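**User:** You know discrete backbone vocabularies at least as well as I do. Would you mind producing a protein record, from residues through to fold? Write it directly below this note and I will take it from there.

**Assistant:**
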Amino acid sequence: MGPVLIVDDEFGIVEAVRDLLSDEGYRTVTALNGREALERMAQERPAMVLLDYMMPVLNGPGVLESMQKDPVLRDVPVVMMSASPPEFWQHLPCAGFLPKPFDIDQLLAMVHRIIGSPPLPH
């Protein structure tokens, strides 16, 4: 299973989600903007992406558009995270949506629903 890619320009959110998912047994990688996210995905196809809507350099919709054009990334499930009103982002082709601030249990349930349980440790 590939890693969960966490993309957000708020380092505190990236760090908290990374620690939470790592504690649950998921492998994670992080990026602080959309361009970094595409660079990470070029290195390794993620199992899923937790993607912030509003970011500098390249925003969430820009990342989604690039992923849709790439046959390797087109099918990677994306969960959009945003504090913006849902009407701005709920029309996007995503596997799920998490309005900020989101509940930890809601986040874990969504990750588990989309990619399943983390692999067992060796």
